[in-house]
Amino acid sequence: MPRRKRTAGSSSDATGDSDDSVEQEKTDSSHSDGNSRANTRLTRASSLRLSQSSHGDQSSTAVVTGTVPLERVKCLPQAHDGSKSGRLYPLIEPPADVKHVVDRDESPPRTPTGNAASSESDIDVSSPNASHDESHARDPSQKDSASDPSHRPKRRRFHESYNFNMKCPTPGCNSLGHLTGKHERHFSISGCPLYHNLSADECKVSFESSVKAVDRDKQEEERSQGQTEDHRHATRHQAPTPRQVRYKEKVVEMRKRRNSPLPREQKDKSMEHRQSHGTSREPLLDNVTSEYDLELFRKAQARASEDLEKLRLQGQITEGSNMIKTILFGRYELDTWYHSPYPEEYARLGRLYVCEFCLKYMKSQTILRRHMAKCVWKHPPGDEVYRKGAISVFEVDGKKNKIYCQNLCLLAKLFLDHKTLYYDVEPFLFYVMTEADNTGCHLVGYFSKEKNSFLNYNVSCILTMPQYMRQGYGKMLIDFSYLLSKVEEKVGSPERPLSDLGLISYRSYWKEVLLRYMYNFQGKEISIKEISQETAVNPVDIVSTLQSLQMLKYWKGKHLVLKRQDLIEEWKAKETKRGTSNKTIDPHSLKWTPPKGT
Q1: Which residues are catalytic?
Q2: Pairing assessment for the beta strands 440-450 and 461-464 based on DSSP bridges
Q3: Is the pLDDT assigned to residue 187 strictly greater than 60?
Q4: Where in the sequence is the active site (predicted)?
Q5: Residue of 164, 371, 509, 562 with fewest CB within 10 Å of its CB?
């Protein structure tokens, strides 16, 4: 078949490709029946380029390329006259007001189009297989929606992984905003701005200001590093940098300016807020502490809320299932912190009722009331090894009182993150501290220790009940554990890892022990081994505490212990201000001998 003549003024490359494609279509159509229109080479990925002649009155020639998408494909019926000659498809130029959208994600055309005209046109194609072709066609309304940015698919944001049927449990909250200021929605109390007495806009402003502050600090750090010539890190000189010193002085000054006594108006406002909202809102924290500490607390809340959101997205925390929210323990209703592996029929209740003497757990308050009428326990089982005033300590053997110790471990797991011991309690001894009144001995806290510890751990797990925290009982438990180590003539240390609150308590105790020893020490040379033998504290813990207090230095090949008089005087002033307190352990009140075997 002779090749068609090229139209004057058109590109040679583009027209050649067009002629080849048209000739190929004619050859294919001559060997197909009337219903073979599905084999056409005009697909959704095809496009037309118009090659106009130099004289605007000449006809245009179709140029088919394989990459630029079509805007609209229409189908016309094919004549079933049995003719074997291929049919040419007319080109219809689009009206001037039609907008053409080119998909930028498509690959560039394989044929050269450098000399082709830049205008694109719609193609009008006939095909009886309309359903197949229309599935690849774009409706004009769809084309308009594609050009509209609001109809484009959006990237899923952090909060969109939740089910939007969920709502924030805070009364009166519409689930908008987030405590961190990063997200547009929240579904938990930890991320609710309304619960924290804030608005969504205030959270956003706080987040933006914190980002700016971080960028500013980073720029200052880079600028200071650029001015420093020596970038070597010195391990011997651990003195704080001038910036850290200025920051500490600023914090001390801000804490001095805080209003220690709350004004009458603030107390009335806080009381009114508590009466109107109850536990559905956070208490008012203004003027309770310094502005620095309050801001630091807000940042910690936002950070914890962010971590909880990530845990929920990862499926490690399930909302509403297998999570006991509160427990009724004696005259207290305690909010739980972590998951505890109670039996499933109890874990899904949301609220658990626990006897404060035998630690048996129940499903309802009616069952608890009936149990309390029959329960004969008024103190923990085991031997009372310490008593001074209302404070008593009972030694409970996990082998002899297995059920009680298992219930104690399940209760403790509600407030401890790293606890892994629940049911295997036989190799442990439990030392339970109680406070007595006319109704019985109420659980204050406890610690457990192995009967035979090869690493000389004097504490395996330690807990102070939330209603007795920040009252000195935690330090009493730690002091009692070291008192037992002294009686055993051993050096002890707590088992790792410690919880966050446990680590804070132990560091405070070690600091107090070392400063008291330094205050009473009158010699010229000091030995860490002697400190360890007198206090029963492990030498590793002593060294780490001295380093944190900046009292251990390396000078001329020797380690020196600096007797910092400022820290000792500060500790002594606190001791004098505290006065005589009953929150101390008296070694003479201990009636205990080390167990000889299991």
Answers
A1: 495
A2: antiparallel
A3: yes
A4: 495 (proton donor/acceptor)
A5: 164
